[in-house]
């Protein structure tokens, strides 16, 4: 019985697959599905940043205390009910992404970038500077989303960063 699985000690089931030989239409199990990653809206991001800015006096040692984050979670749940799910995880991811966006825009705003940038209107890349933009984005990857969209949270994030004003909390 060469080539058969009669003497095999392994089955497809032991490898995570279950095949129903009677179901010829659908012999493999359905593919696994993942939940879509939660993405906060610009309004939700703004609500979190405004909350943190209004509680700067409660921060110490360069960080907000756990009580402030708990209050932030309650504030977000009240103002944006779906956000309450895994608040701390998504707040952290949101803050990280906002910081990356901030630094990308700060670089873009610098005279050295060669682009004019406006927080409301974006870099406004037109046909005549598309090639230059494409070369810039290869080096400054986090800038890519801002070709034709603005970053309304620039000033709010700046307030919370260590090198600006009182901020040193995100």
Tell me what the structure shows.
- 39% of the residues lie in helices and 0% in strands.
- It has 170 residues and is an all-alpha fold.
- The longest helix has 23 residues, at 87-109.
- It contains five helices and no strands.
- Among the domains are: 42-79, no CATH class; 94-160, no CATH class.
- The chain has helices at 42-54, 66-79, 87-109, 130-139, 154-160.
Task: Give the topology.
Layout: H1 42-54, H2 66-79, H3 87-109, H4 130-139, H5 154-160
Protein name: Myb-like domain-containing protein
Summarize the model shown.
This is Myb-like domain-containing protein. The protein is mostly helical.
Name a few traits of the molecule.
5 helices; 39% helix; globular; mainly alpha; single chain; 170 residues
Q: In whole angstroms, how far apart are the ends?
A: 66 Å
Structural class of the helices, strands and pairings?
mainly alpha
Low-confidence stretches: 10-14
Largest sheet: none
Count of DSSP E strands?
0
* Oligomer classification: single chain
State mean pLDDT (0 to 100 scale): 74
Proportion of residues in extended strands: under 5%
